[in-house]
Amino acid sequence: MLKLGWFSTGRGPGSRNLLQAVMDQKQQGKLDVEISFVFCNWDNTEMPNPRHDQRQMFFDQVRGFGIPLIAASWKKFECELRKQDESAWRNAYGKLLREKCGQYSFDLGILAGYMLWMDDETCRQYDMLNLHPALPTGPKGTWEEVIWQLIASDAREQGVMLHLCTAEWDRGAALTYCSFPIRGGVYDVLWDRLHAKLKTQTLDEIKAKEGTAEPLFKQIRQDGAARELPLIVETIRLFADSKVYIRDKQLYTHEKKLAGPYNLSAEVDREV
Questions:
Q1: Within 13 Å of residue 110, how many CA atoms lie on the same side as its CB?
Q2: Are residues 178 and 120 in the same domain?
Q3: Which of the residues 14, 64, 85, 163 has the least number of beta carbons within 10 Å of its own beta carbon?
Q4: Please, is 177 exposed, middle or buried when counting C-beta atoms within 10 Å of its C-beta (0-12, 13-18, 19+)?
Q5: Rg, the chain, Cα only
Q6: What per-residue confidence (pLDDT) applies to 167?
């Protein structure tokens, strides 16, 4: 059985949906996993706390599944140190995290909407997977930045990947991914409309005026977001079924190091 360490900030429905999806698969006997604990970087007594109700629903969900909940407030931890030296603070908080999680054994960490950067030592000690809303060869940055870069470069494809957390933020080796075309069908219509607007406006002007509501941008985001949860579930399944494993921060299968990330496009498309 694959033991998972689950790290989440518990900000909203996305956090709950992902945990629910994994637990549904487990309870149906389709996923041989155990979630050893859920770690949250809020304890929900912080003020101000605009997401209090959302996080409380997440905490109630975790406890309802009988999963141990570890809550360690980043806002209350060593406040003066955080003001003086953010790097030293991150290292100290990472030590606290490892101490609290160390009482539980786990094979693989899943960052499921965890909104803090992990410190270097935690990345070295644990094998943890993080979601990035782009192809392994695609742009870096937030999902907004990624999509605008795709549009600016007239890209033909988009995707989602899971990569290893390393000290080099957002640069860890890609382990799994899925891809989808952003040409053909409705996309051709949306590209044509964008190109028509570009005759009288710059892309920066369109970004400022329409933002994430721009129709091509919105469609790319919608199709990418729909694949995030299935990719995480199918990646966990890949590890749980012992088809792949991590050794020395590299992905292996049957004692052979894989030359690149594992393509789960077909599996994810079946779920979308």
A1: 25
A2: no
A3: 64
A4: buried
A5: 20
A6: 77
The residue written with tokens 């599996």 in the block is: 267
Q: Give the contacts of 103 (CB within 8 A, at least 6 positions apart).
A: none
Cis status, amide bond into 215, omega within 30 of 0: no
For the stretch 97-153, pLDDT in tens is 999 999 999 999 999 989 998 999 999 999 999 999 999 999 988 899 999 999 999
Token reading at 66: 């009988």
What is the span of the domain harbouring residue 103? 1-126
pTM: predicted TM-score of the whole model, two decimal places: 0.92
Rounded Cα gap, residues 92 and 120, in angstroms: 11
> How many domains are there within the chain?
2
Tokens 């007594």 sit on residue: 45
Q: Are 2 and 109 in contact (CB under 8 A)?
A: no
Give yes or no for a contact between 200 and 237, defined as CB atoms under 8 angstroms apart: no
Pick the closest to residue 148 from 129, 162, 134 (CA basis). Answer: 134
**Does residue 132 sit within a domain?**
no
Q: Are 12 and 54 in contact (CB under 8 A)?
A: yes
Tens of pLDDT, residues 48-89: 999 999 999 999 999 999 999 999 999 999 999 999 999 999
What does the alpha-carbon distance between residue 130 and residue 134 come to, in Å, rounded to a whole number?
12
Q: How many CB atoms lie within 10 A of CB 115?
A: 13
